Amino acid sequence: MARENEGSVSTTHRTHVERKSDLELVVTRTFDAPVHIVFDAWSKPELFRSWWIPKSAPITLESCEMDIRTGGKYRLVFSHPDFPQTMAFFGTYTEVTPNTRLVWTNEESEQGAITTVTFQEKDGRTQVVYSERYPTKEALEEAMTGSAEGLPEQFAQLDEMLAAA
Question: 44, 46, 66, 149: least buried by Cβ within 10 Å?
Answer without folding.
Answer: 46
